[in-house]
Design a protein that fits this description.
The structure is a single chain. The chain is mostly helical and about 700 residues long. About 65% of the residues lie in helices and about 5% in strands. The protein contains 31 helices and 7 strands. Strand 1 and strand 2 form a beta hairpin. It is globular, with a radius of gyration of 29 Å.
Length: about 700
């Protein structure tokens, strides 16, 4: 078994399947962290004891040996008794971790950043983006107070900042200035004393056609340096300001780079802007869109001047902006997810648990789909929320705790961990005792996400949607009102009540149009394809066209957890329900649904033995909106192959959903009434003597 280690965040180890290895208590992980820090060198057992305890107790050395023995069992579970360990070895007076050169994420990160310096910009950018994605939080997060780690944590933090700046340089070299701006803006807000970062941000703004903003950034940098450090900007910043003022040719996009702005869009010089403002009263009022843009620009500029870059209020304001960005879908949703983790990490680095709790809990973006778009990132958010919960002072507001718990419930969706439902229930108990409608709406979203522990819970989800609608309409919580309609659309579809589902689809679309929430139309368009499939004797060609049109809306919608494999799955369900031949090429991307589809595909190809093997390997469906549909696919294959054990398991799982349409709880596709699948199971089990 190949073991890899992670220290760019909490200290963890993974097996060769990518599953986390249980490392027991904090002192076991501390020993592992100390050995990783030594980079394959031997650490004397007495040194380990000194590092683990401020004042080592009499049995400290023996305890260290016990920790090492437990670590060996965890890291090399298949090692025969009395065989010499290969990974955590004893040598001389102590121990060494003989991890491979690429087995520790911090070692890989360091090599990737070094290698990027010698690569062309496009390759360097790809390498740096991949490497920065390995960070799950501050390095060695769980041992931040250990003196023996302080220098290494600082070194890695500095290396990460260096990588972020090299990433920005690569984007600028490729003509991607506008894309570099958001990350650089967050970077200087978190690290305001890095003059090189300020210079990169100003240059990116200038190349993106925002000369006035570039000059404002340089003035802001000067103010911070003078007022807080008592020093003037260095020569590079001063030279850059002069060059921007005279529009020096060398500042423009490098050869080969094409900025994503149209000719003529560059911001006018500051003096011209001022002249326009003094004459504004002589002109007719601007169009509403222009007025909104002007207000946005002026308020953003005022915020920049009024709130210092390093202020914690900026971090909270950033999360509020990300919340608005997320509901736009597409690149907005992707950017919000990406920057959310960075904001949480920045808050944790400040060491203020209540601030971190607010940064985590402010991102109350309604969620309707139970499969996470980024499971690794979701796990990072859950881990940060758990750490913050543990660090909250006793007097912290109950609402703060409820938001952290609700976040855990939301981000744990679709997993089999008991922590998600437990956190959602605790959050609900707190929220129902507080007079805070927005908090209760957020918590109800988490409760909804944890109603997939068994099949047949559409009525319960319908009740949650109804409560959300009442609460949101009364208190003007528009995005949660939309969520309530979409939840009820799904639930009524599962219950074959399409007339009511139609009402919720129309209501959601009206709110979407009024409040500019484009993601709503993705779900309502898919619902209409499902409705056509489930209720009308339309031709297969017409239905497949409808599903194809709905799938086109997913392209670029920013929801990869929903997008991959959904269209072929919907078409397969349609054809199975009508007993039509399965049509799928070898290159069909079934996404996460492939294990449940494979036995039926092999059967369609006449490969019965391989289908039998594939059926035995099918895992239990995840606890999400497609659970009933995946069980029905499993049941169909089990009936065809005569697998009694799997038939019994499928019947047990599906019986609570006997009154529902399989898969329709998604509002996206259906395999027909669950009762039909149960009839087939019962008939086959009866024929085979159960």
């Amino acid at each position: 078994m190949r073991v890899t280690f992670g220290v760019l965040g909490p200290v963890v180890a993974w097996d060769d399947a990518g599953d986390m290895i249980g490392l027991k208590g904090p002192r076991h992980r501390a020993v592992l962290a100390r050995l990783i820090l030594a980079r394959r060198r031997v650490v004397p057992v007495t040194r380990l004891a000194d590092d683990l305890w401020e004042d080592p107790p009499p049995g400290a050395v023996g305890a260290v040996r016990t920790f090492v023995a437990a670590l060996r069992r965890a890291l090399e579970p298949d090692r025969p008794p009395r065989a010499a360990p290969r990974l955590l070895v004893t040598e001389g007076p102590g121990y060494a971790l003989r991890a491979e050169a690429d087995a520790v994420d911090s070692w890989r990160f360091e090599r990737a950043v070094t290698a990027a310096a010698t690569l062309p910009p496009e390759e360097a950018l790809a390498r740096l983006e991949e490497a920065l994605g390995w960070w799950r939080g501050p390095a060695y997060t769980d041992f931040a107070d250990q003196d023996w780690l302080r220098a290494e944590r600082s070194r890695l933090a500095e290396l990460r900042l260096h990588a972020l700046e090299r990433q920005a340089e690569a984007r600028l070299a490729l003509g991607l200035a506008a894309e570099a701006v958001p990350d650089l803006d967050a970077h200087v807000a978190e690290h305001p004393w890095r003059e090189g970062a300020w210079a990169l941000l100003a240059l990116a703004l200038y190349r993106a056609g925002r000369q006035g903003d570039a000059l404002a950034v340089l003035r802001r940098a000067r103010t911070l340096l003078v007022e807080h450090l008592g020093v003037d900007p260095g020569p590079d910043l001063r030279r850059l300001e002069t060059d921007i003022l005279r529009q020096a040719p060398h500042l423009h996009t490098p050869a080969g780079g094409a900025e994503r702005v149209r000719p003529g869009e560059a911001a006018p010089p500051a003096e011209a802007v001022e002249r326009v403002r003094t004459r504004a009263a002589a002109f007719p009022p601007p169009e509403p869109a222009e007025a909104a843009e002007r207000v946005w620009t002026q308020v953003a500029a005022a915020y920049d001047l009024a709130v210092p870059s390093g202020a914690r209020a900026r971090l909270e304001s950033t999360v509020g902006l990300m919340r608005s960005l997320a509901v736009t879908g597409g690149s907005g949703l992707e950017a919000a997810r990406r920057h959310r983790v960075a904001a949480i990490a920045a808050a944790e680095e400040l060491g203020d648990a209540e601030l971190t709790a607010r940064v985590i809990g402010l991102y109350d973006v309604p969620a309707i789909w139970t499969r996470s778009d980024d499971p690794e990132q979701a796990a990072q958010v859950v881990a940060a929320a758990e750490r913050t919960l543990a660090a909250l002072p006793p007097g912290a507001p109950a609402a703060t705790r409820a938001r952290l718990l609700a976040t855990i419930g939301l981000e744990s969706r679709g997993t089999h961990s008991p922590r998600g439902p437990e956190a959602a229930r605790e959050a609900e108990q707190i929220a129902r005792h507080l007079d805070d409608p927005a908090l209760l709406a957020f918590v109800l979203n988490a409760v909804f996400m944890q109603t997939f522990h068994r099949a047949g819970l559409a009525p319960e989800r319908d009740r949650i949607g109804a409560e959300l609608l009442t609460l949101s309409a009364r208190h003007g919580l528009v995005t949660y009102e939309v969520l309530g309609h979409l939840i009820r659309l799904q639930a009524r579809s599962a219950l074959a009540d399409f007339s009511r589902a139609d009402e919720h689809a129309r209501a959601a679309e009206r709110l979407s149009a009024r409040h500019e929430l484009p993601l709503v139309n993705v779900f309502t368009q898919w619902y209409r394809a499902l409705r056509l499939d489930a209720t009308r004797p339309a031709s297969t060609g017409e239905i497949e066209t409808a599903y194809g049109a709905a799938a086109a809306l997913l392209d670029g919608a920013g929801m990869p957890g929903l997008e991959r494999g959904l269209l072929p799955l919907a078409l397969l369900c349609h054809r199975l329900r009508r007993d039509l031949p399965i049509r799928a090429g070898e290159d069909t991307d079934w996404g996460p649904y492939e294990p449940w589809v494979r036995p039926l595909l092999l059967l369609a190809l006449g490969r019965r033995d391989k289908a039998t093997t594939a059926l035995r390997q099918v895992p239990e469906p995840p606890r999400d909106l497609l659970m009933e549909a995946l069980w029905c696919l499993t049941a169909r294959a089990a009936v065809a192959l005569g697998d009694r054990e799997t038939m019994r398991r499928a019947r047990t799982a599906l019986t609570p959903a006997a009154a529902e349409l399989a898969g329709a709880a998604t509002g996206l596709l259906t395999l027909g009434p669950v009762s039909h699948h149960l009839d087939a199971l019962n008939a086959e089990l009866g024929r085979r003597g159960r």
